């Protein structure tokens, strides 16, 4: 298996189609005729076995505010592994490579939204409970700003020297 980091605009249409199929197979309840759910990621990590795409993870690079602090984050989007390749450590390897890149590039935290937390807890992510502000978008339409309390879905992993403070979070963009 090998993992490639690809900037989104360098992904050709054939590979976009493969990512779309993989994403839809892994998230059938959110199936779309595109390779992303809400918005294109900035870049992706793609896992291949021989020439077959077996895993992918979109990453959004942005600034967010937490209370009176501002942080640089990598937001993890649509991490998915093909069914027949699960439980082989591929997802953990994708997260490890992203953590290493974040540390190398001075990114403060990895940030994600998840219903199933086991993989992320195993890889050093912590729960945060907070009031969250974000841009509500759905099917390429902006519905304004959302504000809501999140208790059991948001997770962060420290990759820099800064400590996550208590305080409301403003994603300064859409919810991953």
From TrEMBL:
<protein>
    <submittedName>
        <fullName>Acetyltransferase (GNAT) family protein</fullName>
    </submittedName>
</protein>
<dbReference type="InterPro" id="IPR000182">
    <property type="entry name" value="GNAT_dom"/>
</dbReference>
<feature type="domain" description="N-acetyltransferase">
    <location>
        <begin position="1"/>
        <end position="148"/>
    </location>
</feature>
<dbReference type="InterPro" id="IPR016181">
    <property type="entry name" value="Acyl_CoA_acyltransferase"/>
</dbReference>
<dbReference type="Pfam" id="PF13527">
    <property type="entry name" value="Acetyltransf_9"/>
</dbReference>
């Amino acid at each position: 298996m090998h993992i490639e980091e690809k900037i989104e605009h360098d992904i050709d249409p054939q590979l976009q189609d493969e990512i779309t199929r993989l994403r839809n197979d892994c998230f059938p309840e959110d199936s779309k005729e595109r390779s992303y759910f809400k918005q294109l990621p900035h870049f992706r990590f793609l896992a291949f076995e021989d020439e077959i795409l077996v895993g992918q993870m979109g990453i959004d690079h942005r600034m967010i505010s937490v209370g009176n602090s501002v942080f640089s984050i990598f937001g993890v989007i649509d991490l998915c592994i093909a069914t027949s390749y699960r439980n082989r450590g591929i997802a953990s390897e994708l997260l490890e490579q992203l953590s290493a890149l974040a540390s190398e590039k001075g990114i403060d935290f990895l940030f994600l939204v998840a219903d199933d937390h086991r993989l992320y807890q195993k890889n050093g992510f912590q729960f945060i409970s907070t009031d969250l502000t974000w841009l509500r978008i759905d099917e390429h339409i902006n519905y304004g700003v959302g504000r809501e309390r999140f208790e059991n879905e948001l997770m962060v992993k420290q990759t820099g020297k800064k400590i996550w403070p208590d305080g409301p979070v403003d994603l300064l963009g859409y919810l991953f």
